[in-house]
Each structure stands twice: as structure tokens, then as C-alpha cells.
Design goal:
about 25% strand, alpha/beta, 6 helices, about 270 residues, two-stranded antiparallel ribbon, nine-stranded mixed β-sheet
Length: about 270
């Protein structure tokens, strides 16, 4: 395929998973305690999508990758200092909330408007990438809504592999139950791909790629459009899952009795 693809990756930032998260309700709705103080990373599922997008663009001449992110501008800048060294892309930034306490429909609408406004984007060559799930917006609906808003109805979720075949055909492997894959063939773009973990490792840091990206990242952050989204309605309380552990110490219990107790506990 000589013209290549226009690949748009949707990906927000999330708190580092090693941090303890505590939900709190503020004047604007639900959020995380000291959220702006928590170290952040690019959403892991979105990261897989970005690496797969860069690999596809590398192997198909004429392709280009954009990363569209709705996140607090200051935190996004910190994350971009690292991500910009991984793979080549052009950033489209929205200055808005990155937590999971907003409706998927609102987030999807804002992202779709940002994508539609990308200068030079050819929607007939569009491949919309994103995470199948998310560490913050795990509703599993945001990416689908973005695709629908852009008029892209060919959508694939749980993708682990995407191949370009002869004639421009796209071969897609989607996860299904039992560790199996559903194989599909697509004539070509436009299409939406919600990535699982893919098959690629995280690329090593490349300072040269970082310098090239940062020439565009900083201006994109400076002109990031502010986005105000309302917190998800109907949340009266939010709390972390409580840990529950029941331990009983016994001695000299026959193995058969232990096995029977385990079976009874599983049945219960």
C-alpha cells in the first residue's frame, strides 16, 4: 500500500500502579486524593496500542502516527518526557481530567472532536487505535464511542495482532474465551482497533527520537484545548475494595478432611 495509513492512538495518563489510590469527593465531583501529586504513566493498554501503531507505520511507507490524549496538561508534559523517547508520533493534547470518574460518552465526544480537527488527517486512511481496557476509563466503551462519532463502524476489540496482507487486506486476531482467537479480514481502513497486550515489547529509549518528538510535543501542550467534563452521575459513594482474610490454624487434621473443607468452601 503506497499511500500508507493515518493512525490515531487515543491514550490518557494514569497514576503509577504502585501508588495507593484513595477516592475523594471535591467541589467538582469525585477524584483521587492528591491526584496531581501522584506520579503518572501512559495508560498501559494505550501504550501497547501506541507501540503497535509505530511498528505498523514503520513497516508501511507513507504512514503517520498521532497520539491524542485528554489529561491534565502539567502531568501530561511529565509523561511525554519519557514516552517521546519510545516511538515517533505527533501529539494532540486536550487539557482535561484523566480520572475514571467521567462518563464515557463525554470523553468520547471530546476525543472525537479533537481527532476530527487534526490538520491533514485523511479519514479514508484512518486506523483508530486505543486500549481495549483502561487503568482509569475501564468502561470498555470510550473507544467505541469515538469510532461511532467519527462514522467508523468497522470495530475490533481485544486485538492482539494486526497484519497487512497482499492487496492491502488487514488480518485481525481478536481474543475470545478459552485462549483462542477470532480471525477476521478487513478490506482496508477506516477501522477501530481496541488493543489488548499485542505482541511487541516496550521499545528502549531513543534520545534522537525524543528530540524529534519534543519539537512538536511542547507546542502541542502549549495550545492544548481546555475540556471541562462533568463527573459521572449517580455516584453516591466510592470506596476501595476491602481486603478480607479468614485464617484458621489447626493441627493434625487428615488430608481428606482438609480436601473436603476446601471443596465445601469453593461450592459456597
Amino acid at each position: 500500500m503506497s499511500t500508507g495509513y493515518h493512525i490515531v492512538v487515543c491514550g490518557g495518563i494514569v497514576p503509577d500502579p504502585l501508588q495507593t489510590l484513595e477516592p475523594v469527593k471535591g467541589p467538582t465531583g469525585w477524584g483521587l486524593k492528591n491526584e496531581l501529586m501522584l506520579p503518572a504513566i501512559l495508560d498501559p493498554w494505550a501504550g501497547h496500542a501506541l507501540f503497535e501503531a509505530a511498528n505498523l507505520a514503520k513497516n508501511v511507507p507513507g504512514s503517520k502516527v498521532w497520539l491524542v490524549s485528554m489529561s491534565p496538561k502539567a502531568k501530561l508534559q511529565q509523561v511525554m518526557m519519557t514516552m517521546a523517547q519510545k516511538v515517533p508520533f505527533e501529539l494532540v493534547a486536550l487539557d482535561g481530567p484523566s480520572s475514571g470518574f467521567v462518563e464515557a460518552s463525554q470523553a468520547g465526544q471530546a476525543l472525537a472532536e479533537a481527532i476530527a480537527g487534526i490538520a491533514g488527517l485523511d479519514t479514508s486512511r484512518l486506523l483508530l487505535f486505543g486500549g481495549w481496557q483502561s487503568a482509569s476509563r475501564g468502561a470498555g466503551a470510550t473507544l467505541q464511542i469515538v469510532g461511532e462519532r467519527l462514522g467508523v463502524t468497522e470495530q475490533f476489540q481485544g486485538v492482539d495482532k494486526l497484519e497487512v496482507l497482499d492487496g492491502g487486506l488487514l488480518r485481525v486476531l481478536e481474543r475470545v474465551e478459552g485462549g483462542s482467537y477470532q480471525e477476521s479480514e478487513l478490506a482496508g481502513p477506516p477501522a477501530v482497533f481496541g488493543w489488548a497486550t499485542g505482541e511487541l515489547p516496550e521499545p528502549p529509549n531513543n534520545p534522537q527520537v525524543g528530540m524529534q518528538n519534543m519539537r512538536l510535543v511542547m507546542p502541542a501542550l502549549q495550545k492544548a484545548k481546555p475540556v471541562k467534563l462533568e463527573s459521572a452521575a449517580g455516584l453516591s459513594t466510592v470506596e476501595l475494595p476491602k481486603q478480607k482474610r479468614e485464617t484458621r490454624v489447626v493441627k493434625d487434621t487428615p488430608v481428606d478432611e482438609i480436601a473436603k473443607e476446601i471443596v465445601a468452601w469453593l461450592k459456597a
